[in-house]
Design goal:
Among the domains are: about 100 residues, no CATH class; about 50 residues, no CATH class. It is rod-shaped. The N and C termini lie far apart (about 215 Å). Helices cover about 20% and strands about 25% of the residues. By secondary structure, it is of the alpha+beta class. The longest helix is centred in the middle third of the chain and has 42 residues.
């Protein structure tokens, strides 16, 4: 009776895992602008959120194939038939004997996953009247702050003018090469001490009679000769 060769059929157990990935979009508060004086305004908000997700799965050590042993299952001896010829008795003649090894693919492979996308949300207040009132209040607050700045600037310039003028009257000033010379460079003194400004003197080209009468050395201007009379004694 000839030998019989059989190949064992291995049982493969596989296991895996599933990973769930999700993108969560959280609605944030409106963007708030503060203008001072307690004025705060919230405007429409748009949220643009790009995202990239990825995953990788690998098995270590990596084996693309394995060698599966083929055992000797010959059963030709151990019993006899009616004619006395040897036959198998149901027990392997060479148990555990490996005849050869065959190459079997494992189907093992790595897995990669890549996801790219974006999410966008748009939020806008419903009451446009309140939005306009807040804008008007913000504009008024800005104008008020500009006016305060202008007043402070005027006070600074007047104080600079007053101090530079007083120092210039006293003969005190920065050296022209000093970096602070330009602080008082545009201040002018139009009324120095001891002078009134403006003042004028009128000069007449025609001589007046009053001025001629005051000129000495001219006899014709003195009039007729003086006449003297004797003194009379008073009665006793």
């Amino acid at each position: 009776m000839g030998g019989v060769s059989a190949t064992a059929a291995p049982v493969a157990n596989s296991s895996g895992s599933v990973t769930n990935q999700a993108i969560q979009v959280l609605q944030g508060p409106y963007i708030t602008n503060t203008y001072g004086g307690g004025v705060q305004c919230q405007g429409p908000t748009i949220n643009f959120t790009p995202y990239v997700t990825g995953s990788a799965g690998a098995q270590k050590p990596f084996e693309s194939s394995y060698l599966d042993p083929v055992y000797d299952v010959t059963d030709n001896f151990g019993a006899f038939d009616e004619e006395g010829r040897p036959m198998g008795d149901g027990v392997l003649d060479n148990p555990g004997r490996v005849l050869f090894r065959k190459k079997v693919r494992t189907a093992q492979k790595d897995s990669y996953n890549l996801g790219v996308g974006f999410s966008i949300t748009w939020s806008r207040p419903m009451d446009s009247k309140l939005q306009q009132l807040c804008k008007d209040a913000a504009q008024a607050q800005i104008e008020l702050q500009n006016q305060i700045i202008s007043s402070k600037r005027l006070e600074f310039e007047l104080a600079r003018l007053r101090n530079c003028g007083n120092l210039a009257k006293d003969g005190i000033q920065f050296h022209p090469r000093s970096p602070y010379y330009k602080i008082c460079a545009d201040v002018l003194i139009n009324n120095p001490p001891g002078h009134s400004h403006p003042h004028r003197h009128a000069i007449s080209s025609a001589p007046s009679s009053k001025s001629e009468s005051l000129q000495p050395g001219r006899a014709e201007q003195l009039g007729a000769p003086l006449q003297t009379r004797p003194l009379q004694s008073s009665p006793e």
